Amino acid sequence: MGYGSVYQGGYVYSIDDTPAAAASAGGVVFEMTNATSSPAVWSAALTTTNASSTTNGQSNTTAIINVLGSTAASAAETCAQVTDGDVTSWYLPAIQELVGGTQSAFPTLGAVGLLTDTENAEFWSSTEDAANTIQEVDGVLVLSSPATATETDGYFKGSSLSLRCAHAF
After folding, report:
1. Structural domain harbouring 139
2. Integer CA distances (angstroms), 24 to 7, 89, 169, in order
3. Peptide bond preceding 93: is omega within 30 degrees of 0, i.e. cis?
4. Phi then psi for 22, rounded to 5 degrees?
C-alpha cells in the first residue's frame, strides 16, 4: 500500500506503520470524488462549535455535530453520513489534514497525479477560524494544481464550498 492507493473507498494519503499489534498499518484515506451534496454550507447557524483542532478532523466533526445536531445541514454531517467503501467513520478533515505538508491530502495526492478534478475549487475544512469562530472557517484554495493547494482563512460559514471527507483505518 502506498500514497494514492485505493483503500476502503478512498485514496490513501497518510500512512502510519506503527499501529497496535492487531493491525499491520494504519492511515487515512480521502474521498475520491466530492461528497454527494457538495458544494455545501459549513453551517447555516452562526455559532461557535469549538471545532478548533488544526490536525484532528474527527474530533472537530464530533464537536460540530454535538453543537449543531445530527439533523442540521452541515458539511460535518454530510461527511458523517458517507458510506463509501462500506465504511461509516468518515469525517470532515481539519485544515492540516488537507494542506499541512507531508502526509496531508492535497499535497500528497496531488504529487502522485491525483485530484486533478479539484483544480480551481475551494474546499471546507472542519477547523473554525481562530480569529472569528462564530462566523468563519479555514478552507483550502486549489488553483492550478492540488499539489500547491493553500490554506485560506476566513470563509463565511454560510458560503457554499466543495467538500471531501476522510476516514482513518
Report:
1. 6-168
2. 14, 19, 11
3. no
4. -70, -20
Within-domain flag for 54: yes
Is 155:141 a contact under the CB 8 Å cutoff? no
The mean pLDDT value for 59-78 works out to: 92
Q: How many domains does the chain have?
A: 1
CA–CA dist 128, 94 (Å, integer):
9
Neighbours of 44 (CB within 10 A): 11
Residue 118 grid cell: 479539484
CA distance 138 to 46: 15
Contacts of 48 (CB under 8 A, 6+ apart): 67, 128, 133, 134
Q: What band does 19 get if pLDDT is binned at 50, 70 and 90? A: low
Task: Tell whether 1 is covered by a domain.
Answer: no
